[in-house]
Amino acid sequence: MITSRKRRLIAIALLAIVPIVLPISLPISTSPNSYSITETAFAASVKSKLIHFSDVDALTFKSTSVTFNKKAKKLASTEPITIRFENKTVSIKAGCNTMNGAATLSKGILKVKNLASTRMACSTSLMNQDTWLAKVITANPKITKLGNQLTMTSSKNVIKFKLYETYGYADTPLGDENSEALVKATCEKLIAAKATESQAQFEAEQNALIFRVTSREGEDFAVTMDYRVNRMNVKILGGIVVECTQG
Question: Are 210 and 244 in contact (CB under 8 A)?
């Protein structure tokens, strides 16, 4: 018969021969250049990419920051810089005139040819800003995209943009049976309200309509002849919409 004393002795003997496994802490590097596998994979997954025109076609972006030589650059305008890509053209505005031209975007390099501009008379500071912006966009700037963020780099100038809208052409290129009535109602509303160009564009985007300016301050623009049932064509005079049609 095994007594309690013998049981205790057997238990002690078993503990003596069973190895005790303790967790071993691995050395942790404090070097700022060392990253875990997870961190490295995450960094790679969110890396900005050099883009092509198809990545931004029919999208509008507004600037969130502007730097020159790594220092913040204050814009002369209260409005952010707006840039839009559509049908192999690019248009950009920084508070005064709107500039547009034929464009290509391949492997992150934007090339703009025959840049044209409206001829609005603005303050000297705004006109100088237009001149600066024209130089930036025609200097074959580098364009990268990360999510809805866009970065334009030209020499020492860096402009960061954020996606402004995802409506219109990108989502509804052909429209539907309701588009005709929607365009008509929207146009009537804009004319009655004496809407500005930016107000008209915003209204179009909220209704998932394509927005196009065919004339601004007496200057007619060359436009494509294709017909889009969900497209608004507007004429701007005195800063407001004076004509709005469908097609």
Answer: no
CB distance 146 to 46 below 8 Å: yes
Asked if 113 and 103 count as a contact pair (C-beta separation under 8 A), the reply is: yes
- The strand pair at 210-216 and 219-220 is best described as antiparallel
Report how many helices (DSSP H) and strands (DSSP E) the chain contains, helices first: 5, 14
* Local structure of residue 173 (DSSP, 8 states): S
Query: What is the CB neighbour count within 10 angstroms for residue 19?
Result: 5
Burial class (CB in 10 A: 0-12, 13-18, 19+), 195: buried
The pLDDT tens digits of the residues spanning 97-112 come to 889 899 999 999 999 9
The secondary structure of 71-111 as a DSSP string is EE---SSSSPPEEEEETTEEEEESSS-EEEEEEEEETTEEE
Which residue ranges form the domains of the chain, and what is each CATH number?
49-166 (2.40.128.270), 169-246 (3.30.10)
CA-nearest of 56, 40, 33 to 143 is 56
Confidence of residue 7 (pLDDT cuts 50, 70, 90): low
Handedness of CA 139, 197, 151, 54 (dihedral sign): negative
Q: Where are the beta strands (DSSP E) in the chain?
A: 49-50, 59-68, 71-72, 82-86, 89-93, 98-106, 109-117, 142-146, 149-154, 157-165, 210-216, 219-220, 231-237, 240-246
Q: In which region does residue 142 sit, left (phi positive, over 0), alpha (psi from -120 to 50) or beta (all else)?
A: beta
pLDDT of residue 18: 45
Model pTM greater than 0.70?
no
